[in-house]
Automatic annotation (TrEMBL):
<protein>
    <submittedName>
        <fullName>KxDL motif-containing protein 1-like</fullName>
    </submittedName>
</protein>
<feature type="domain" description="KxDL">
    <location>
        <begin position="16"/>
        <end position="100"/>
    </location>
</feature>
<dbReference type="InterPro" id="IPR039843">
    <property type="entry name" value="KXD1-like"/>
</dbReference>
<feature type="compositionally biased region" description="Basic and acidic residues">
    <location>
        <begin position="108"/>
        <end position="119"/>
    </location>
</feature>
<dbReference type="Pfam" id="PF10241">
    <property type="entry name" value="KxDL"/>
</dbReference>
<feature type="region of interest" description="Disordered">
    <location>
        <begin position="97"/>
        <end position="119"/>
    </location>
</feature>
<comment type="similarity">
    <text>Belongs to the KXD1 family.</text>
</comment>
<dbReference type="InterPro" id="IPR019371">
    <property type="entry name" value="KxDL_dom"/>
</dbReference>
């Protein structure tokens, strides 16, 4: 029984060998080797780029965080300044009602858009 199975498998393998040419198999093996080389090169380039991007991100994120803190501090300072200006203006208006004769000048003091309001 084992001999007949072995003989049958031998015959099937011989038939497969006649179906596919050796040159075609060698060509496929060569193409697969070329593709493997290209994929390995691409992988190395991407790994190098990822390392570079990670270093750049680390540098930029520190600067970005520092600049964000600076801008928040500046905004708080400006809000405080404009609050004091409005307070001074209301005190002047309370003491001297004719100090600002028309309402058009009140808009000239603070024409900044309110960035915290949704648009």
């Amino acid at each position: 029984m084992e001999e007949s199975i072995r003989a049958a498998s031998q015959e099937v393998s011989e038939e497969f060998k006649t179906l596919v040419k050796t040159e075609d198999l060698n060509s496929l093996r060569h193409l697969q080797h070329l593709i493997l080389g290209r994929l390995q090169d691409s992988n190395a380039v991407l790994a190098h780029y990822n390392d570079f991007a990670e270093n750049c991100f680390a540098d930029v994120s520190l600067e970005f965080a520092r600049n964000t803190r600076l801008l928040k501090s500046m905004k708080a300072d400006l809000d405080y300044i404009f609050l004091k200006l409005r307070s001074i203006k209301s005190k002047i208006l309370a003491t001297y009602p004719d100090a600002f004769p028309d309402d058009s000048t009140s808009d000239a003091f603070d024409r900044r858009p309110d960035l915290e309001l949704p648009q």
